[in-house]
TrEMBL record, chains A, B:
Keywords: Amino-acid biosynthesis, Aromatic amino acid biosynthesis, Lyase, Pyridoxal phosphate, Tryptophan biosynthesis. This is Tryptophan synthase beta chain. Tetramer of two alpha and two beta chains. The keyword ATP-binding does not apply. Residues 74-411 form the Tryptophan synthase beta chain-like PALP domain. The lineage of its organism: Bacteria, Pseudomonadati, Pseudomonadota, Gammaproteobacteria, Oceanospirillales. Pathway: Amino-acid biosynthesis; L-tryptophan biosynthesis; L-tryptophan from chorismate: step 5/5. Its EC number is 4.2.1.20. It catalyses: (1S,2R)-1-C-(indol-3-yl)glycerol 3-phosphate + L-serine = D-glyceraldehyde 3-phosphate + L-tryptophan + H2O. It comes from Oceanospirillum linum.
Length: 448, 448
């Protein structure tokens, strides 16, 4: 039996798949503060034209530029792996496959979108890209991508992470990225924060506001976002397309597809190409797995909310915990977001995509079992999908169902070992975000 | 043009290649303190019979057990990659290929030997494996392997690394390894050291002595070594065999083969299968690349010396700087060894394998250029091979020679980012180990 299924390089997808073309209803548009739909012009200060077109597009297939494919070939197609050793340890009748996105230079799926974003900005004469990063997965991917197309990349890294996670900061610097501890003194937002509190440890909300301010005020600079938006999910669909081809090579098709669910790029990337089949009548279940501490899909409300915590961005119709949601300090940094991609949200709202929440301790238990069977130490985000797959595989062991399960191993945990340390020491908490807090936060929103 | 060359799983080598069969002269035997050759019995207290047989064997091909192949398939065959982006950056007429051993779960080539060692010990009823580790590459690989065959793995980690490199320690713990800061109070050696100096920071010499003492005193425990010995190099020849097949798939053969050279497992693993062709008349140059701070092949003497710094092991005929050589605190921990594999040493002595030394700063410059072109951040050890390849590629740019160059990317640098930090801060030193110190150290040795 084959352990790893390799797709030949010349079969790497040539187009991204746009799920909008197959959704039963058109996506709800983003709205401005006046409650009116936001047009492309509002975005042109911070995004290149090609990205704005993708954000608004309803075309089913969008061509991947040759220059982007050439760079993706550094590590793509990624392997699809049969988790034989995990199957044995569980004693399950299920077949478990995972798509290994951890093999990218940055160690996660994030470069799949960072590279086209850098490319389109370069094409349109942009000299500098600015972004924010929490734990550093997206920041390191954009540093890698910016270096490929000779762009100056500036990363506002939340100060507490800047100080506590020096390794991922160094990774960005190795690829030539300029990393700043946010709040910085380069922006008005940053200076205001520092005036009030010179010892501020920063937050993702402040870092986003700083990045957007600097990008908006400089005609040669743009902003880049690593999840949530339609174009980001579009770029990630290369994952699911490859997985479909690879499963086909061994005569398989998944009954269920699992991915961690934070801003949606991980989930959309793997699941949307399977949604195309589901829309055509195929029986396949798509499942987003989120933390119980940040349960936007399972406990949030489907309503218009801001994309950022400061209320600067247009409002999107999405599952949200309220934009002033204060995420507890859980270790899956990539899943600490108050909202959810509008596309994922709409599909979930329409009953076409499921969601479940898993507690933090269970996710690390799953990750350690995975490391001790399949070898790879997963990122804390990926542990959510693994925990869900293990639940299903053990359920099937009871019922005797021999399902085919597929999940996204979105990244490795080499830069997250301190989180494993806290798990081994029994210091991790299983935080359930209180429903009253969600209600109180959502009550402050304007209703459209 | 193909970027990555994948070998199908069913073409992964079924046998290890034993270079002894093709060496023009039989290997010089290891000697005991009396100057007499050491027989298999002397090793049986700490090694299983199958390993001792391999250590002494002159058979050309030794079968890889099916159970070992099954585990190696978790990540093998590893990709052979054409370093197209590095070639462009250098503007060289050369073709540069690298074998990417960084894709293993432990992030280096070390599991190639850890897995068979764990397997043979399990087969012979051993319950516990004990080893030492400096920076942690070998310790993490043995933890991974021990977990696969349900062995208790104990790792004596040099205390200064235990304290300063918690991430790699956590990696060992994730795979179930028991890590102890050496000196420990579990052994006589450790207790003696602690009595004299309760604050001892440890050394690799102390850690080896502790591991050997504990393994020798427990009939259910054995010792495992990650480099230097014949059987370790044997297990690593899967690297070069795969690389040959992969080059053949694209119609190439290397003019020169480069690998970092510390204890010899990296170099022997890639180069020995090409030596088989060289012995049959093929024109191929094999080059070991070592640090100027630890120049055993380029400045050491070819003589009998102890394998460890305390003089406990049998003596081997090898290039050595003297077993009481004090390696400076360079950042390629895997290359800080006073001696060199007896097999590599003999081939070098007979003019069949070349060696060169590179300064530390140049190796990190090479690693950063590699990361900024090919994406992957290399281990400091691997940077030595990259620096040598860059030297040759630039030399060929001058002369117009279009050579095919192959090197071993033996590991990634995800757990070595603090070394990159010191490089970026300009804090790395280019240490040249003084020849007088080598002479003084070697003068103390008995001559055989």
């Amino acid at each position: 039996m084959q352990k790893k299924i390799w797709l030949p390089e010349n079969e790497m997808p040539t187009h991204w798949y746009n799920v909008v073309a197959d959704m039963p209803n058109a996506p709800a548009p983003p709205l401005g503060p006046d409650g009116q739909p936001v047009g492309p012009d509002a975005l042109s200060a911070i995004f290149p034209q090609a990205i704005i077109e993708q954000e608004m597009s309803a075309e089913r297939w969008i061509k991947i530029p040759d220059e982007v494919r050439e760079k993706l070939l550094l590590w793509r197609p990624t392997p699809l792996v049969r988790a034989t050793e995990l199957e044995k340890a569980l004693g399950t009748p299920c077949k478990i496959f995972f798509k290994n996105e951890a093999v990218s230079p940055a160690g996660s799926h994030k470069p799949n979108s960072a590279i086209p974003q850098a490319y389109y900005n370069k094409q349109e004469g942009v000299k500098r890209l600015i972004t924010e990063t929490g734990a550093g997965q997206w920041g390191s991917s954009l540093a890698l991508a910016g270096n490929m197309f000779d762009l100056d990349v500036r990363i506002c890294m939340v100060k507490v992470s800047y100080d506590q996670k020096p390794y991922r900061r160094l990774l960005m610097q190795t690829w030539g990225g300029n990393v700043f501890a946010s709040p910085t003194d380069m922006t008005q937002v940053g200076r205001d924060v520092l005036t009030k509190d010179p010892d501020s440890q920063g937050s993702l909300g402040i870092a986003i506001a700083e990045a957007v301010e600097e990008a908006g005020g400089n005609p040669e600079a743009n902003y880049a976002l690593g999840s949530v938006l339609n174009h980001v999910l579009l770029h990630q669909t290369i994952i699911g397309q490859e997985a479909k081809k690879q499963l086909e090579m061994v005569g398989e098709y998944p009954d269920m597809v699992f991915a961690p669910s934070g801003g949606g790029s991980n989930l959309g990337g793997l699941a949307f190409p399977f949604f195309a089949d589901k829309a055509a009548g195929k029986d396949v279940r798509l499942v987003g797995v989120e933390p119980t501490s940040c349960p936007s899909l399972t406990k949030g409300e489907y309503t218009y909310d801001y994309g950022d915590s400061s209320g600067l961005t247009p409002m999107m119709k999405m599952y949200t915990l309220g934009h002033d949601f204060m995420p507890p300090g859980i270790h899956a940094g990539g899943l600490r977001y108050h909202g959810q991609s509008a596309l994922v949200s709409q599909l979930h709202h329409e009953g076409l995509l499921e969601a479940m929440a898993v507690g933090q301790t269970e996710t690390f238990e799953a990750g350690v079992l995975f490391a001790r069977t399949e070898g790879i130490v997963p990122a804390p985000e990926s542990n959510h999908a693994i925990a869900a797959v293990i639940q299903e595989a053990l359920r099937c062991k009871e019922t005797g169902e021999a399902k085919t399960l597929l999940f996204n191993l979105s990244g490795h945990g080499h830069f997250d070992m301190s989180s494993y340390d806290r798990f081994f020491k029994g210091e991790l908490e299983d935080y359930e975000y209180p429903e009253e807090a969600i209600k109180a936060s959502l009550a402050t929103l304007p209703k459209f």
